[in-house]
Amino acid sequence: LAGGTGVVQAQEPDLKYFVEVAVPAPEDARNLALAGFDVAGIDRKRLSVGLVVSPEELTRLSAMGWPVTIRSTNRDAGAIDALADYIDPQELSTFMDQVVASHPDLAAKSILENTLFEGQTQYVLHITKDVALANDRPSFVFDAQHHAREVMTPEIARDLIDYLTSRYATDATVRRWVDNINIYVVGSVNPDGAMYVFT
Asked: Strand 38-43's sheet: what is its strand order?
């Protein structure tokens, strides 16, 4: 609260840099991870490792002799907007609720894990014909977002859910799948990590 006025002000996030480190071999990414650095990715062709580092870690990298190129920071213009086109775990949960409301005979949402370490809930959407009735159909499990920064994979899960439920009435192939398989979609295996990325 700002000065007891009741107005909540957004706090600027701790400064983080996205840097590229030139490495002699892709295996050096493991050495950087073992040294405590947050490895965001590896470019095997260019022999570089992407890291997310604090100012102190940036200084440590340089002191260790690693060639570092700063690519961006989380305070750059547009950094927060970079995630605007992607669905966060709470939005995914709302989407699942909408699908269940629109297709109650095909879709049912359940909790896999309530209140994870950071307070998020892990959900699964079950899609099959007469979803409320027990059956002995084979099961197919699709899960997404194991790693926090996998912001695209929940989009694929959302597309899968939409494809199966919105085309059931008009697409014979989709109807065959949904009538004969228990399809389980876990849109975010790691909702805690995902919300950390979004916030």
From this structure: 38-43, 48-53, 17-22, 68-73
82/45 Cα distance (integer angstroms): 25
Distance CA 192, CA 8 (A): 23
Provide the token pair at 170: 């008009």
Instruction: Indicate the helix (H) or strand (E) that contains 164.
Output: helix 153-166
* Residues 86 and 151: beta-carbon distance below 8 Å: yes
Residue holding tokens 């590896």?
42
**Per-residue pLDDT tens digits for 128-167:** 999 999 999 999 999 999 999 899 999 999 999 999 999 9
Give 59-104 as a DSSP string: HHHHHTT--EEEEEETTSTTTGGGGTTS--HHHHHHHHHHHHHH-T
For residue 19, what are the CA distances in angstroms to 50, 54, 110, 197?
6, 10, 40, 17
Instruction: Give the three-class secondary structure for 26.
Output: coil
| Residue 8 pLDDT level (bands cut at 50, 70, 90) | very low
Model-level pTM? 0.74
CA distance 88 to 118: 14
Chain centre distance of CA 168: 27
Q: Could you report the per-residue pLDDT of 49-93, keeping only the tens digit for each? A: 999 999 999 999 999 999 999 998 888 777 667 788 899 999 999
